[in-house]
# Entry
Amino acid sequence: ERLDTDDSPDLVIIQVYITNARRSYELVDLYRARGVHVCLGGLHVTSLPEEAAAHAGLPRILIGFESLSTQNLVATNKSQNHHYRETINRLSDLGIMVNGSFVFGLDADGPDVFERTVEWAVSSGLTTATFHIATPYPGTAYHQELAAAGRILHQDWERYDTRHAVFRPANMTVGQLEAGYRRSYEQFYTWRNIAASAGRHDDRNHALRHFAYAAGWKRFEPAWNYLIKAGQLNRMLPPLETILAGKGQPRTLAEPTGLDLDEQPRGPDQGGAGRGTGATGGQAPRNHCCTLGVSVRSQSAISRG
# Structure
């Protein structure tokens, strides 16, 4: 399939597979040379971050660890390899900050899952973490499974937001699940745990960027919300990009976008991802700006080109 590359998007999103990696990097180089912001994803990027970084930078990466339980991963048709710490250390050595994503409430989870997950995330040196309550979206195998067992609590779709338990968990109460979810955010983003996680890095500059990023976005979240509402966020982007990149010059962004294009760690009062048919996906964090009027180009099937 031939692609029209004479366009002028604000953002290009490419999911990289091993069979389309070469073509993907050609497109990355093309659009970045025009000053377009490019986002890469996919297993190939996670497996070979050095290769991807040579083309697209890669200051931050989101990894869906989902669960530390092998039983949960098997039940949700996940096939991640379990060399989690090795992967995190490899990315850290490259100066890449890692945002880990976790899902609570799957059938192997008990009341102790929250503290165990936070402890693991901190000791692994994750820069940020996002937590979610497993959510059985209508039309998925997960929803059918829970509905057949009589475990769906209601059909109030506004609460199917990965912040509320809309089913009866197997090994804890609804109250324990929701309280544990909120507590995980509170515990992970304490000053003590931010410092402990940042201290896991051998490189001092990376540790400082880690601390600044996690503390700046979560401990001062009310200030960011004010800047967003006041329309002043773009004024802060150049110095922030300079600090987080650890360089003298900020990365080139598409102009003008009026958007914060990087996914920031969300809090328990913000939307997120939930379990569908063995995969996670969901709405953007509430503290993101509106995407209306922005040209976004996604190329996830470019191997045919």
User: Anything to note?
Assistant: The longest strand covers residues 97-104. Confidence is low (pLDDT under 50) at residues 247-265, 271-305.
